[in-house]
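Write out this protein's structure.
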Amino acid sequence: MTDEGASDPGPLVRLLGIRRTSSGNGACRFDLTVRPEHMNPYGVVHGGVVYSLVDTAMGGALVSQLGPGERCATLEIKINYLAPVSEGTLAADARVVARTRRIGVLDATVRDGGDRLVAVATGSFYIQDAAKDDARG
């Protein structure tokens, strides 16, 4: 995610129908309405869709704490899938747990429209200063 990513999370997010519903102060929420295209062959939302929702929410939470010229990239995310979803909405709430100059650690939960916990995740993101990193080439 770049500085521009704070306002436009990118084409994959648009393709999946993921929407930002809140962001600021190291926290962020994104949601999506489940569509047939989100399903795996067994008729439940594909884990990759849930992962993309979590990754987007975590990135948004960290971006809300970045300074001018900083951007972030996912290093890793560990996700536990707790319940299948086949319809309705999903919402991912992410928050920054800790941040150093170059690393952000975040956690997130995903709930369905009935407030059932669907997944939990932790992740780490690399924070870079775009101007310094671009100058090093």
